[in-house]
Amino acid sequence: MFEQLSLSLHMLMGPILERARPGNQMPRYKLRLPVVFYWNDGEHHAGGGFTSDIAIDRVFIHTSKCPPSGSDVRIEVLLPSLDGGDDEIRIECSGTVTQVIKQAGLTSFMFHGILSDDHLTRYVLP
Prior knowledge:
- Helix content is 4%, strand content 58%.
- The protein has one helix at 9-13, and strands spanning 2-4, 18-20, 28-30, 34-40, 44-55, 58-63, 72-80, 87-103, 106-113, 120-124.
- The longest helix has 5 residues, at 9-13.
- The protein starts with a strand and ends with a strand.
């Protein structure tokens, strides 16, 4: 069961985020939140990881399983409940992998899409 929230992303994220690297066009936030992502390259794939940098138009994700660069991907960024309840807030978004980085056994990718209030959903856990 889920219900659409009437909160804005800035209202939701503002109190819990630390602004990162001022001077860029879009505000960026250093955030470590769980994320689930899905893509299809003839086969359906799913993966999970954590964010480290979020803006309204992009998300940097650390994971052990990256989609290939250029892939169309759907992500779900999971946020804790603001009121301490048994629900979880998800921001869902579709976009494209623009960069895959592999360094010292770690993999990450840059996702470009538009995170908007239209994709903010609260899931009520049973």
